[in-house]
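Before relying on records like the one below, remember that each one covers exactly one chain. Contacts with other chains, cofactors or solvent are not represented anywhere in the record.
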Amino acid sequence: MQTRIQGTVMPVLEVQLDPNESVFAESGELSWMTQSIQMTTHTQMGGGGGLLGMFKRVVGGGSLFMTEYRAMHASGEVAFATKVPGHIVPVSVSPSSEYMVHRHGFLCATPQVSIGVGFQQSLGAGIFGGDGFMLQKLGGTGTAWLELSGELIRKDLAPGETLRVHPGHVGAFQASVSFQITTVPGIKNAIFGGDGIFLAALTGPGTVWLQTLPISRLAHQIAEYLPRSEGNGRAVVGGGLLGGIVGSMLNGDNN
């Protein structure tokens, strides 16, 4: 198996498979593949061999079905692209080197890698789209590729060293890193600080990968410019001057 990551802002992972080699990804992740690649969609990959394994994967934010891409009779290539601007990060997974990844961070992996729930906590509606905060745990043996959004910042934490992070910026970290959700100190900071009321406390030893563009924050920024309906059924678009111009066009007031 040979791999290469191409591109800068919107990178793509290309995996060159020898005959009978395979990788798996969540359903819908495929970008392109050559003719010799055979797709098989089922629930058995990612540690989902039984009902408990499937349950852990789904609770962790993964999908029920996984798709295996296998080269049949000849070498072939399969590719997976990022969904938002960001980076693709390869990690080597083993029983002594497991990883915790944000719920949308898994891109693909070799067959013996397993996916389960690593952390789940409800933080109230509206803070993370109403879904709370979830982490996937990557275990087993093999290589996994992670999709982290925005720029990528790596922090190597010494034993006992703690880094407090807005939860949306937590991309991935080694399982040796201790993780807990804490509240922002001080009532005025929590109410008027504008940064939310929760922080993730990450304590070493281990490596942490931070992402500068949380998908929830990106969605919030885009939502301001999406059309919305008024009571009379007319579409209104926010976003200042540009939003006003587009809104007028949508409303038919462009005379």
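The domain at 2-223 is CATH 3.60.160.10 (Double-stranded beta-helix).
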